[in-house]
Amino acid sequence: MYLADEAWPDLESYFESESLALVPLGSTEQHGPHLPEGTDHIIAESFARAAAAETGYLCTPTINVGVSPHHRQFHGTMWADAPAFRDYVESITRNLAYHGIDRVIFVNAHGGNVEHLREVGRRLRDDGTMYAIEWMWDESITERIEDVFETPGPHGGPKETSLIQHLAGELVHEDRIAEARDGGLVEFDEDTMGKYGATTFYDAIDNTENGVLGDQTDASAAVGKELFEAARSNLCKLCEWLADQPFEALTPKPHV
Q1: What kind and span of H or E run contains 84?
Q2: Which 8-state DSSP code applies to residue 220?
Q3: Does residue 125 have a pLDDT over 90?
């Protein structure tokens, strides 16, 4: 069920019988010369709506702009300041609580959102409003991704390229995929991202001239479909697990 498609009388029965909602979140930011700036929110919405269609749980509209100042040097990147993002997400999630939702899955596809969604979840749980958790598609199938790609790349790499080739292939600039690899950062390790235990970069451009990492030439729509189905299955299982939990089991434990 997609909330924005429903008339309000038709949502009444859902709120009377169910307590779970999916909230997709992504970003609008550069993803190299070959992928659309909407890569993350396209992925997040696709997972949330697919899981909602399979399980029957409610999917809200997508939050399309996230915490992305680290991509600001590239044309068109949009971002919300972290405090504003947290407050906005918390506010609209509390809307759901007003209607009777007491558990939420933040279906997230942007790494820059993770810590802020965790903070929002803590706020909502600590005051007894609801239990909200962050789910990241690639974190649910890490072993499979490592099996498929030699250098998956955390941003604009073959895993995201494959998903967009599967979900919105018309938006992929296939003729720029080799350029994405050659102008980006294919191989990297801990020393690339930091020194002696400290993270030494703040912006993506500090590490990669065209904004992406990994070998995009390993990507394909067929692999994207396989990864999508594997992660979608895990999201559906998470929905069912969370829906089955008694609310009191999700609330903070009392002081010892």
Answers
A1: helix 82-98
A2: -
A3: yes
Strand, coil or helix: 175: helix
Segment 93-116 shows an average pLDDT of 98
Residue 39: strand, helix, or coil? helix
Tokens (6 digits) for 76: 């068109």
Provide the 3-class DSSP secondary structure of residue 103. strand
Provide the pLDDT for residue 193: 78
Sheet holding 103-108, edge to edge: 58-59, 20-25, 103-108, 131-136
- In a 3-state reduction of DSSP, which class is residue 245? coil
Q: How far is CA 98 from the centre of its chain?
A: 25
Residue from 145, 158, 164, 227 nearest 186 by CA: 158
Given the DSSP bridges, would you call strands 58-59 and 20-25 parallel, antiparallel or unpaired? parallel
What is the DSSP-derived secondary structure letter of residue 213?
Answer: B
* Helical segments of 99-220, H only: 114-126, 142-148, 158-168, 177-183, 190-193
pLDDT value, residue 194: 83
In the prediction, which pLDDT does 192 show?
A: 76
Q: State both tokens at 47.
A: 């997972």
Tell me: pLDDT of 151 over 90.
Answer: no
Give the pLDDT score at 234: 98
